[in-house]
Amino acid sequence: MKFLCLHGRGTNAQILKTQLGMVLHLKTRDDLLIKKLAPLSYELGRDNISFHFINGLAETDRMTDLPVMFTGPFYRFYAADAYAPDQLTCSLQYSSARDYSPEDTLRAVRQACPDVQSSVEALDFLRQVLNDDLAGPFDGILGFSEGASVAATLLLHQHTKRHDQQIGSSGSSSSSFSPTTPQLKCGVFVSGLPPCSWTDSRTILADESPMRITLPTAHVVGKRDPGKPASKALWNLCEADRRVLVEHSKGHTVPWDKATVLEMARAVREVVEAVKRDNYKLSTTL
Asked: Where are the beta strands (DSSP E) in the chain?
């Protein structure tokens, strides 16, 4: 099982690899070192689950509060900042002070997505990666923060295009996805943000759109994450009986503590098992 991994805005592929512990999954005899310092890779590597990390479309500024140990260059997938840090902080304040739904919260802080061209460029960029025989084939997609928004947009777009092809419609998207583009089978969202429309500049919300992510998904959400309402809005867009939630005590980050990592590994395994039950042909023998 192979996942395509998308980093957050203002970071890069190497940083996400480090955050997930994959950088320490080396050919070494010190198995205890791997287990202690790279628990997620240790846990999932035994299940024949692999990860491929890519950089975003273009360079951008460093993510706010990114630890000094991480070095650039830094990248983004969307041309515009769809989820600015001050808006995420504001969204948590709104949801805490009022009995707002996640969707009401995002509307209250006037959260907007990038323009259509930016969303389509991100989709086309991922299409090129999915069609790259050397990098893939990929069975699932994992995204952190902005990367999760792009991943969710891709999964929704994939579902919509497949539906359009089944009913003989050309659809309304200008993205160059084709019937030959490999189809992803699941998603993992860490500090996830809702997807962005590829037809207008808006966030896709469950109480405004009938579109849903019907594939198996895992959601890792921080209780102190200022973007928690956004993560819950993404959760609401995913089919109820095919989603798994992992909630941890930290903020907008990839958690490293052993208990949470074990829960993350469990959630990913549940997603993989759901894919198996869907009788998909995977890129490796599970």
From this structure: 2-6, 50-54, 58-59, 75-76, 140-144, 186-190, 217-222, 243-248
